[in-house]
Design a protein that fits this description.
Distance between the termini: 59 Å
Oligomer: single chain
Number of strands: 2
Number of helices: 6
Radius of gyration: 19 Å
CATH class: Mainly Alpha
Strand content: 5-15%
Shape: extended
């Protein structure tokens, strides 16, 4: 592989990362939907709308990881603290699902006031 090709690949990887984090809009986006008859419907999506969705998704993912890190907990410890399965936590951290209700509030408190959570856990 020559140097030019390697640089093009590196550039493409950096660009894909920026799109995934919502920092850059992709050239075009297709949303595929399976139809009841088994066929697949393809719809063009506004790239800037997609960028906004990805940015929000990325921020939510990093918020959950940051809260867990602030408490110095493993995934299994954090899942136990929130009263959820580790699989649910994986989904949240990967961005395929979002926390709701009390779990969402606890995550926000853990991120902003980890010392308060640690004090409560120490006395429990």
């Amino acid at each position: 592989m020559n140097k030019k090709t390697l640089e093009e690949i590196k550039s493409s990887i950096r660009e894909a990362g920026a799109v995934r984090r919502g920092e850059k809009a992709p050239a075009r986006v297709w949303r595929l939907t399976k139809q009841p008859d088994g066929s697949v419907k393809r719809m063009l999506v506004d790239p800037h709308k997609y960028q906004g969705e990805k940015k929000a998704q990325w921020n939510a993912q990093t918020e959950i990881v940051a809260a867990r890190s602030a408490l110095s907990m493993s995934q299994s410890q954090f899942a136990g603290f929130l009263g959820i399965s580790i699989r649910t936590l994986h989904h949240w951290e990967q961005g395929s699902r979002k926390p709701t209700g009390a779990a969402r509030v606890l995550i926000q408190v853990a991120q902003k006031e980890p010392k308060a959570i640690k004090r409560v856990l120490a006395t429990a």
